[in-house]
Design brief:
Layout: E1 5-10, E2 13-18, H1 29-43, E3 50-55, E4 60-62, H2 76-83, H3 90-94, E5 99-103, E6 106-108, H4 110-117, E7 120-124, E8 128-130, H5 144-152, H6 154-163, E9 166-168, H7 169-175, E10 180-182, H8 187-199, H9 203-216, H10 221-234, H11 239-250
Parallel strand pairs: 2-3, 3-5, 4-6, 5-7, 6-8, 7-10
Antiparallel strand pairs: 1-2, 8-9
Helix pairs in contact: 4-5, 5-6, 9-10
């Protein structure tokens, strides 16, 4: 029997598929556990250059949490115990490799929180985004209240979070929630183009560049520049840096190993 999360590594790209199409890929406990394990597996695979998240079936990337699992805790203590520990989306956010959410159809609640934990988001024209938790008298609990404002700004984020309203792909592009919108049916082509771009770059340089951006985001400019300088210095003695310079001189494609 297939799991709730599938991993398929193709030419250095880890394709991670949320695999509950009969529920619009709703997130249950098994999926949370399997997703975390799968991300860690891909993150530690030296052959993987980037991770791409997608949803099985035609209707949704992920429609959020499986409501069948919504069992109220018996007390406030129980509720706090359930929330103790890292968010299940943290494994995605902590991945040093590029992460991409390839979104089609519904991308709601926890599904949007998966996408928000990724570095890049590409969506089809039929994509629908939202954090509808307040309509269930709860709030986004896997990073949505923190990552969405950081990505799109306070105003657009508050409107989505406080009203639970859905937005379409065009609006998502306008506010910066997604970086690209493609025709329905063209998502694989868009992902393929990104994958090719990731295969051309030095894996360690990409990891350090990502670290510099994310660490510097909450620092004063002077401290962010110091982080950038430190990480840049670490790359000066790598084999990939030598290979990159040689390939440029010889007018050929570089062959990077991450060393």
């Amino acid at each position: 029997m297939a799991g709730t999360v599938l991993l398929d590594v193709q030419a250095g790209i880890a394709l991670i598929t949320l695999n509950r199409p009969e529920t619009r890929n709703a997130i249950d406990a098994a999926m949370r556990r399997e997703l975390t394990e799968t991300v860690r597996t891909a993150a530690h695979d030296p052959s993987v250059r980037a991770l791409v998240f997608r949803g099985a079936g035609e209707r949704a990337f992920c429609a959020g949490a499986d409501i069948k699992e919504f069992v109220p805790p018996h007390s406030l203590v129980d509720a706090r115990e359930e929330r103790t520990g890292p968010k299940w989306t943290d494994a995605i956010a902590a991945c040093r490799k590029p992460t991409v959410a390839a979104v089609h159809g519904y991308c709601l609640g926890g599904g949007l929180e998966i996408a928000l934990a990724c570095d890049l988001r590409v969506a089809t024209e039929d994509a629908v985004f939202g954090l509808p938790e307040v309509r269930r008298a709860i709030l986004p609990g896997a990073g949505g209240t923190q990552r969405l404002p950081r990505l799109v700004g306070l105003g657009p984020a508050l409107r989505m979070i406080l009203t639970g309203e859905h937005i379409d792909a065009a609006e998502a592009l306008r506010i910066g929630l997604v970086g690209e919108v493609v025709a329905t049916g063209s998502l694989e082509d868009a992902v393929r183009r990104l994958a090719e771009a990731f295969r051309r770059v030095g894996p360690r340089a990409v990891a350090y560049a990502k670290e510099a951006v994310l660490r510097g985001a909450d620092l004063p400019l002077s401290e962010g520049l110091r982080v950038e300088g430190e990480l840049s210095t670490l790359l000066t003695t790598t084999q990939d840096r030598v290979e990159g310079a040689a390939a440029f001189r010889e007018r050929r494609d570089p062959v990077y190993t991450g060393q």
